[in-house]
Write a structure and sequence with these properties.
Layout lengths: L28 H7 L16 H12 L12 H44 L1 H9 L4 H37 L8 H27 L3 H7 L1
Helix pairs in contact: 3-6, 4-7, 5-6
Length: 216
C-alpha cells in the first residue's frame, strides 16, 4: 500500500520523484477493503509484459502479510501452460485409444478371415487340384485382406472428416485437416488389413487338398 508522492516539492517547476516507488503498488482505501474481504472475489490485473509473475508473487504479501496463502493468484502464462498440458494429455489419450482400436480391429479382421478360410475349404481344394500353387492361394487371401483394409480405411477417413466438419461448424472453428492426416488414416487401415490376412493366408496355402476333399 502507499500514497502517491506529492508533486512540486522540489522547488520551481520541477517535481519530486522517489525511484524506490517505481515498482510499488497503489490501492485506494476502498479497494483495500474489497480485496481483503474474506468472501471469494476475483480481481483481474493488467500489467506490462514481464511483470505478471512478480506481481502475482507480491500481491498476497501486500494484501495479507500475516497469511498470504489464503490469497490465490495465477497468471495468463500459467493458465496457458495448464491448457497446453491438458491438450497434450488428451492428445496422448486419444492416440492410445486409436492404437488400441486399430489392434482390436486387426484381430477382429484376422478372426473373420480365418473363419472365411474354414468355410472356403472346398474352394481352396479345387484351386489346388487344378494346379494353383501355395503362393497363389496365399496371395489371393492377402489381396482380399488388403482390399478389406483399404475399404475400412476409406470409410473411416470419410466418417472422421464428416464428424470433424460437423464439430468445427457447430463451434465455428476453421476446418484444419491436411492430406497427410487423411492419407495416414487410409494407410493404417491398409496396413491393418494386410497384417490381419497374413496368418489366415498362410494357413490356407498350407492345407492339403486331398485331406480337405476327404472331410468335405
Amino acid at each position: 500500500m502507499g500514497q502517491r508522492p506529492p508533486r512540486g516539492c522540489g522547488g520551481g517547476s520541477g517535481s519530486y520523484r522517489d525511484v524506490s516507488l517505481d515498482n510499488a503498488l497503489y490501492f485506494s482505501s476502498g479497494s483495500e477493503v474489497v480485496l481483503v474481504d474474506p468472501l471469494d472475489r476475483l480481481v483481474v490485473a493488467h500489467t506490462d509484459p514481464g511483470y505478471a509473475e512478480p506481481l502475482a508473487q507480491a500481491i498476497p504479501l501486500a494484501l495479507a502479510p500475516a497469511s498470504p496463502g489464503r490469497i490465490q493468484t495465477s497468471t495468463v502464462a500459467q493458465l496457458a501452460q495448464l491448457q497446453q498440458g491438458i491438450n497434450a494429455d488428451l492428445g496422448a489419450l486419444l492416440r492410445l485409444i486409436g492404437w488400441v482400436s486399430l489392434v482390436l480391429s486387426a484381430l477382429s479382421a484376422g478372426t473373420t478371415m480365418f473363419l472365411s478360410v474354414q468355410h472356403r475349404s472346398a474352394e481352396i481344394a479345387l484351386r489346388r487340384s487344378m494346379g494353383a500353387s501355395r503362393g497363389s492361394v496365399f496371395r489371393l487371401f492377402c489381396v482380399e485382406g488388403l482390399g478389406i483394409g483399404l475399404t475400412g480405411g476409406v470409410l473411416g477417413a470419410a466418417l472422421g472428416i464428416g464428424l470433424t466438419a460437423v464439430i468445427a461448424w457447430a463451434n465455428q472453428w476453421p476446418l484444419c485437416l491436411g492430406l497427410q492426416v487423411v492419407s495416414l488414416g487410409v494407410g493404417m487401415g491398409l496396413v491393418a488389413g494386410g497384417g490381419a490376412s497374413i496368418i489366415p493366408a498362410a494357413y490356407a496355402s498350407r492345407r492339403d487338398p486331398a485331406q480337405i476333399l476327404r472331410t468335405v
